[in-house]
TrEMBL record:
This is Ferredoxin. Ferredoxins are iron-sulfur proteins that transfer electrons in a wide variety of metabolic reactions. Residues 62-81 are annotated as: Disordered. InterPro entries: 3Fe4S_ferredoxin, Fe-S_cluster_ET. It comes from Streptomyces siamensis.
Length: 81
């Protein structure tokens, strides 16, 4: 998964660091440090962290992709029959 944090929006509330500490951490009181390429095992924690950001500064490409892709493939398969 690819993460992007808009550091201009980020206000340092640290909800993401609390919910996904293996991906996000605070350097000092206001500087956020994060891994832009999060591991698949972090999916659930990342979903919570993204949802908890009070200023919606975090986006995650591929966060909901696995389920959506599977549903789409199932629809295409049933349409072909």
């Amino acid at each position: 998964m690819r993460l992007v944090v808009d550091l201009n929006k980020c206000q340092g509330y640290a909800q993401c660091a609390f919910l996904a500490p293996d991906v996000f951490s605070m350097h000092g009181e206001e500087a956020l440090v994060y891994n832009p390429r999060a591991e698949e095992e972090q999916r659930e924690k990342l979903a919570r962290a993204v949802a908890a950001c009070p200023v919606q500064a975090i986006t995650a490409d591929g966060l909901h992709g696995a389920g959506a892709g599977s549903d789409e493939a199932a629809r295409e398969s049933s349409d072909a029959h």
